[in-house]
Amino acid sequence: MHRESKGLNVHPTFLIFLAMQLLTGCAFLHLAPHASPLTTEMVRVPGSWFLMGSTEQDGRIGFEIGVDELPQQRRYVRAFSMDRTEVTEAQYLQFLEATGSKKYPGYWKEAGRADHFPEGYDHYPVSDIDWFDAVAYCRWAGKRLPSEAEWEKAARGTDGRLYPWGNRFEPGRANTLETSAVYQSPEGQASYEVKGWKAPVGSHPDDISPYGVYDMAGNVKEWTATGYQSYPGNTFKTVKDSGTFKIIRGGSYLTEAVFARTAARLAVLPTIGPRETDGWHSDYTYGFRCAK
Fold first, then answer.
1. What is the distance between the alpha carbons of residues 160 and 45, in angstroms, rounded to a whole number?
2. How does pLDDT run across 165-176, given as a tens digit for each residue?
3. CA distance 44 to 226
4. What three-state secondary structure class fits 138?
């Protein structure tokens, strides 16, 4: 009489299938990407022509208007998406932890802990970030830094307005030097006698562009992907035209209103360095947002 085995009676084909699944699963676990970055809403900026740069009617050249903002030009930018808000402290910490980077902003250490942002700063824009780490973050998030033209298009739209909201500066509308004193820097920063500090992203809802992008006039300045060059037709050639310098756009909590205009340009070195060390490697007013 046939007696059934008390053990598991499994067909060899199933064993092969099971082994393949286990191997596939192990490979998936090994190749799994880092945790997705905290969600940042993006806004769509349609492709179109727009006015880039300034005219001699916008202010005194060399005083209110930078010589490298001339001449104003019509530029075409293809459709793209941009982060509605600047990258936050919490998002940047997630990037550092996921990638193992030790490039902590200098003010973290001064506030008491080198590897973590000050308590309660989750929704503040991260700053003291150099160009290389801004590029690395955006790549990790599946995005990129915006070009200089994209940044200006997102900030001013197509009508050449001087500020994201229009042609007149209104104190209190953006977190610039005129109003930033109500925000206090974290403990440890008092010795610098900073006149103001950054604010949570999106906390100035009137500092908004035609496409719904926040804080493009104030809060922190923002890196772009573009190397510095003079505009075509500019007669004020500078030594920075090598492309070594990177363009930063927008105003900050230490920026006067006239320099928080949508067309204002700032050419700076991509890092202060040396990059292999921690600490201050850009500027406490330099932050960024990503595009796609």
1. 15
2. 999 999 999 999
3. 20
4. helix
